[in-house]
Amino acid sequence: MKVLNVNMSLDPVSGGGTAERTIQISRQMALSGIDTTILTTDIGLSRDYKKNVDGVKIVALPCLVKRFYLPRFSYKLIKSLVSESDIVHLMGHWTFINALVYYAARQLKKPYVVCPAGTLPLYGRSQILKKIYNFIVGKNIVRHAEACIAVAVNEIDHFKAYGVSVDKISLIPNGINPADFNTGSEEAFRSKYKLGIHPFMLFVGRLNHIKGPDLLLLAFAQAQERLKGYHLVFAGPDIGMRAELERIIERFSLQEKVHLVGYLGGSDKISAYQATGLLVIPSRQEAMSIVVLEAGISGKPVLITDQCGFDDVALVNGGIMVAPSVEGIKGGLVEILQDPKKLNTMGKNLKKYVEDNFTWKIAVEKYSGLHRKILEGKQ
């Protein structure tokens, strides 16, 4: 089987969760003996980063306009990549590269599946452009797909809003590679970011509105007297909200307790998980954040909002789920941090649940089964 995986970027900073999912799925497909190619843009694609997908062919189009991921492209090249593939897998949604591949797949009558990973709803900036995109091509991309991949149960309604029938939707959650989290050093992380022996909670993600870092910071500020000396670490690139967070920090005089450390990758991120006592995901909207799995495999509990598509956290007692509001998060922080022994138990529960159910190997087995079913139906 030959699979073409398409995503606008493999850059972990700008590409976020869809970049990580594309890389991990592609790597696992190659390990499973599937001939795998990634079509992407060259944003953030260093030579060292390509080593993360050893065994996978990467075709990177030069990006002309980074804001909208507009690539310089050869339609002949795109048609050739689609023609050589048995099945095409489109990640994300609001991208020119997806539209190009969609047109080629339709022209060549090649089957394709879509995995928007939570990006279908109109949210954030450029909403007029997004409406135009959906009118011209976006909705057709979703509706004409052989199958629609939801990464979380809450994403099923997103597809239904686009006119997709439930029988075309397959649930294939995000995963984790446990071996990737065997390194790292708590001591090195604490020393590097001058955290001393203070316990701290951790936010991992882009600093933008949808991820809710402002909700977490305000909740943290208002609950100071009941948080038992905890510090707060924000690990993620600035996508428009750092200045606002800095204003809140100054208003509440939290300069000594709140740490904006920027994007963390590799061993630095693993070390952060090892050192923290709690991961907080305050998202206003999310489709199963990968970071909850990263925390879980590291044996750490999570506080997560009920808009994150991973209600299992509460069901397996791996953390608690709250409303995506300052009051909801504040109450959750106070509740979950009262009993250190309970925190430890929650971390163990979540680790066991992630190990048993959410690896990239399991995800690729589901993909392979779906792909075979689609291809057999085309014979």
Structural commentary:
With 379 residues, this protein is an alpha/beta fold. The protein has 2 domains: 2-175 and 359-378, Rossmann fold; 178-357, Glycogen Phosphorylase B (Rossmann fold). 43% of the residues lie in helices and 17% in strands. It has helices at 16-31, 47-50, 75-84, 96-108, 127-143, 156-161, 186-192, 213-222, 242-251, 266-275, 290-297, 312-315, 326-336, 340-357, 360-378; strands at 2-6, 35-41, 57-61, 63-65, 70-71, 87-91, 112-115, 147-150, 169-171, 200-204, 231-235, 258-260, 278-281, 302-305, 319-322. The two termini are 14 Å apart. The model has no long low-confidence stretch (mean pLDDT 92).
Summing up helix and strand content along with how strands pair, one would put the structural category as: alpha/beta
The helical percent reads: 40-55%
Beginning-to-end CA distance, first to last residue: 14 Å
Oligomer description:
single chain
Overall spatial form: globular
Q: Kindly report the name of the CATH homologous superfamily of the largest domain.
A: Glycogen Phosphorylase B
Radius of gyration: 21 Å
* Tally of individual helices: 15
Biggest sheet record? 7 strands, parallel
| Second rung of CATH, namely the architecture of the largest domain | 3-Layer(aba) Sandwich
Number of strands: 15
Strand content: 15-25%
H/E element order? EHEHEEEHEHEHEHEHEHEHEHEHEHEHHH
Return residue spans where pLDDT drops below 50 for at least 5 consecutive residues: none
| Order of strands, widest sheet | 3-2-1-6-7-8-9
> How many structural units, i.e. domains?
2
- CATH fold label of the largest domain: Rossmann fold
Mean pLDDT across every amino acid position: 92
